[in-house]
Amino acid sequence: MMSPTILHIETATDVCSVALSRGEEIIGLKEEAGGNNHAKNLLPFVEEALRQGGCTVKDLDGVAVSVGPGSYTGLRIGVSTAKGIAYTAGIPVMAIGTLESIAQGAKTLWAETSAEQPQIIPMIDARRMEVFTTRYDFAMNALEEVTAKIIDENTFAELLATQQLLFCGNGMPKCRELLSANSNAHFLDAPVSAKNLLLPALQKLQNRDFEDVAYFEPFYLKEYVAAKPVVKGLH
After folding, report:
1. CA 202/CA 21 separation, integer angstroms
2. In terms of C-beta density within 10 A (0-12 exposed, 13-18 middle, 19 or more buried), how is residue 138 classed?
3. DSSP of the chain, one letter per residue?
4. Residue 235 predicted with pLDDT over 50
5. How far from chain centre, in Å, is Cα 228?
6. 172-202 pLDDT, tens per residue?
7. Residue 24: which pLDDT band, with cuts at 50, 70 and 90?
8. Mean pLDDT of 40-65
9. Of 79, 108, 188, 196, which residue is least crowded by CB atoms under 10 Å?
10. What is the mean pLDDT of residues 33-40?
11. What residues does CATH 3.30.420.40 cover in the chain?
12. pLDDT tens across 142-164, in order?
């Protein structure tokens, strides 16, 4: 399979993004940021990306999907859609960690303007000063498990004493507010996008690292807790 055609789905945050790739080239892309309309937008975005690439579902060699951590609802929509397409077309699903894809996108952007190779700290905004995060070296080797961290001025103090760190993702601004005075701390606005799933997906396809379409689930990191409805005046 010299130039596989892969559909990529990213719905882990408020960005709804679909990309289509052939080999290492993105040939279709449709995305929208800042909304919570994934249920309405995702399938039309899939259709548009396929149209841009001159493809149909029958032409796909696989589906890659961002599996979290992130928005509970967004992840459910993305994974369910990927499963449906894979089952219909008889093709494999590659599950890509959302933090890995954010780090991959940041690495690509950073390398365009700098020869430095900092460690990469992708972050997904959680509540208040909390983020979902992990750490990669510049070769994209994972150095830590994915965790939830409360960010304060001391969170990365030990690492920043000796190591350049590149913070990215939609949780990054929480760090920038606290750590921007440190010369080893770098901050990059790297948009969440399905096109960042491409390189990890190609690796998984080559290694035949596929998910069980019937049983695999998103990686939520934390259990979803539905908020209880509150009626003013009632206790």
Report:
1. 10
2. middle
3. --S-EEEEEE-SSS-EEEEEEETTEEEEEEEE-S---HHHHHHHHHHHHHHHHT--GGG-SEEEEE--SS-HHHHHHHHHHHHHHHHHHT--EEEE-HHHHHHHHHHHHHHTT-----EEEEEEE-STTEEEE--B-TT--B-S--EEEE--TTTTHHHHTT--EEEESTTHHHHHHHHTT-TTEEEE-----GGGGHHHHHHHHHHT----TTT-----SS---PPPP--TT--
4. no
5. 29
6. 998 898 998 999 999 999 889 999 999 999 9
7. very high
8. 97
9. 108
10. 85
11. 5-97+193-207, 98-188
12. 999 999 999 998 999 999 999 99
- Is residue 23 scored above 90 in pLDDT? yes
**At what angle are helices 98-111 and 198-207 packed, to 10 degrees?**
120
CATH topology of domain 5-97+193-207: Nucleotidyltransferase; domain 5 (3.30.420)
CATH number of 98-188: 3.30.420.40
Q: Is the pTM of this model over 0.70?
A: yes
